[in-house]
């Protein structure tokens, strides 16, 4: 997976954490006050996620930002 | 330093790496194709840096993104 972009890895990591917590895409988007397709767009590199938004998503998933980003940096 | 934002820590880390490599703010901005005040604005939380831009800056400083972000996540 090392050849895919960090945005793609980040999108996958968020999706895995979301599913792990039993949130549908819609429920998580509503809770995180994001558009329903936002994470999908990040994953497909169609949206250029900011560090601040990544931090907000991490908080909404009850993980630290490093739990998300460190996974993507490996 | 744990109370300052991740953007502030990131700005400081980039500045330290830039100075360590002997780049002035102007020289680094030109090399990285960024506006001269961009990093300063990130550091002052006036600019919401994207993960992709953080990755580009890391490449221009010859470090991995984790060298920058992991420092900010501690």
Automatic annotation (TrEMBL), chains A, B:
Question: Source taxonomy lineage?
Answer: Bacteria, Pseudomonadati, Chlorobiota, Chlorobiia, Chlorobiales
Cellular component terms (Gene Ontology): cytosol
Can you name one GO molecular function term for this protein? DNA-binding transcription factor activity
Pfam families in alphabetical order: HTH_3
Q: Where does the HTH cro/C1-type domain lie? A: 14-68
Q: What is this protein called?
A: Helix-turn-helix transcriptional regulator
Query: Where are the membrane-spanning stretches?
Result: none
The record's CDD domains line, in alphabetical order, gives:
HTH_XRE
Q: Which UniProt keywords apply?
A: DNA-binding, Transcription, Transcription regulation
């Amino acid at each position: 997976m090392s050849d895919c972009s960090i945005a793609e890895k980040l999108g996958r990591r968020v999706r895995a954490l979301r599913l792990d917590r039993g949130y549908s895409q819609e429920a998580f988007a509503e809770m995180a006050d994001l558009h329903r397709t936002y994470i999908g767009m990040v994953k497909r590199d169609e949206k250029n996620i900011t560090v601040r938004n990544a931090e907000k998503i991490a908080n909404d998933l009850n993980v630290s930002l490093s739990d998300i980003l460190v996974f993507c940096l490996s």
